[in-house]
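Predicting holo structure, zinc ion bound.
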Amino acid sequence: MAKTAYITHPDCRLHDMGGYHPECPQRLQAIDDYLVSQGMDTLLTSYGAPLVALEALCRVHAKDYVEKVREAAPTAGIVHLDADTAMNPQSWKAALRAAGAAVLAVDLVMRGEADNAFCAIRPPGHHALRDAAMGFCIFNNVAVAAAHALEEHHLKRVAIIDFDVHHGNGTEEMFSGDARVLMCSIFQHPFFPFSGTHGAAANMLNVPLERGAGSKEFRAVVEQQWIPRLESFEPQLILVSAGFDAHREDDIGGLELVDEDYAWCTEQIKKLAQRYAQARIVSMLEGGYNLDALARSVAAHLKELAA
Ligand SMILES: [Zn+2]
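Done. Tokens:
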């Protein structure tokens, strides 16, 4: 049995971008409800997400941008940061807690207080750029985690795995050419944000998949491309941008993964972490918009992490 930290905060459910937005508060409720219904909450050690320190946030974001977000936060109603990304009065705190969860997760696994950690957070992060919100994302949580591990814990090699249906363009922007980071991703292409297929730096292993690709194609990428690269990189910590919107029941994208693919992929990540990274894995929620598929897939992911 691994000791798995589960980090979340009620503030992350108060961030609401308006009626019918797929990135909705019910996502976290669905995950929590399902974990309880499966008796899985007892396998996890719960932590409240703290507000991130400005210093940790500004390792990957421009100070001006952080200030701009703070000033944009409305006292009532909703304001848009981009076409898809909005803030209500609670969004500022939710975004600080999401990034704060990422930092706490890294600290817990680095101090050996947990073997691995999952952050049930929103807003998600992997599209957020150094100086701009994008694609439902305000601050880049996984990038904050990676920078914290490198700067505060003095790690030399951190891997970022991203299996969200969308390319993690923000994370790529922040670490492109940084040899301390290896990013391995799959994503549907051509598809939002229409990046990741041209001119990637050597530390970016981006593998586009065509609409309709499913378990077979995904597992082939993991086995034939991700694992060999991760083995030669020998990461000291593995971070996961865990988006579950490549699920076949998720209408936002066109990939065909199933619950078992998330369990299988997590098992592969765990083996790598045990071999190279003292079992240290920090995973954080990105996408996943079909509430049933999201809840089941997160449970499948957590079951392997906690095994
Ligand atoms: Zn996504």
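The chain has one domain: 4-306.
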